[in-house]
Amino acid sequence: MVKEDKLKVELLSHTADPEQNVVAAIRQCYSSVGAKELKEKTTDEVKRRLIGQVIESGHTSTLEHATFTFAIDGVSRVTEIHLIRHRIASFSIQSGRYVKRGDAAYRIPPAIKALKDKKLFDKYAKHLENSQELYNELLEAGIKAEDARFAQPQSVQVKIVMSMNARELLHFFTVRSCTRAQWEIREIARQMLALVKEVAPIIFENAGPPCVSQRICDQGKMSCDLWKSIKGAELKKSIKNE
Predict the structure, then answer these.
(1) How far is CA 92 from CA 12, 64, 71, 158, in A?
(2) Is 97 a catalytic residue?
(3) Which residues make beta-bridge pairs with 93?
(4) How far from each other are the two terminal CA atoms of the chain, in whole angstroms?
(5) pTM of the full structure
(6) Catalytic residue among 176, 180, 186, 215
(7) I need a labelling partner for 99 at 20 to 30 A (CA). Which of 26, 42, 113, 241 fits?
(8) H/E run at residue 157
């Protein structure tokens, strides 16, 4: 029986009062008063206006003063590779060299779960089971975990701690919330966005794929057409058609 853990994202910590912190940084650029005093005097109305201005203008460096740390459990090695491509972030990943995964869990893609051919699904499941059995046998034979892990498929699940600032998170949600993104990282983005909206609702109010955040779909012929249901959104014209 293949073990599969549920993908779960938790917000471990974040900058205290992240939006006030960002606004203090924005105002500091144009004030002789210290950031601490600016932060204390900021009203909700000013906070919404200033954050909206920097996001709309694209001058978002001040958003880097708000940082968020997540625990991501049950993610596959496949999607781990997608995550670490976001280089303006910090990652601490469960080590396959030092952590023996004798009872490892494996991510099973929805498309494979939905297979109508039961024999083919059983063959896939058996492959995972055989790989795990081989891994355990190698460990029992005295092979180190760092070498035994070569027997495990990329679907093996791991745990990750990841930190990003608000500016990079907005970019992350832009590219990873789109329906064109890989399904597992899209689910991670969905859970992350829901969590940060609770603590920084102004910053992430319009976060999401380009059709949501920018009212433009840039996927051309590969568009899922979601933009059609969003007021004011449009399909970006290709250079060839201009």
Answers:
(1) 13, 20, 10, 11
(2) no
(3) 160
(4) 55
(5) 0.89
(6) 176
(7) 113
(8) strand 157-165
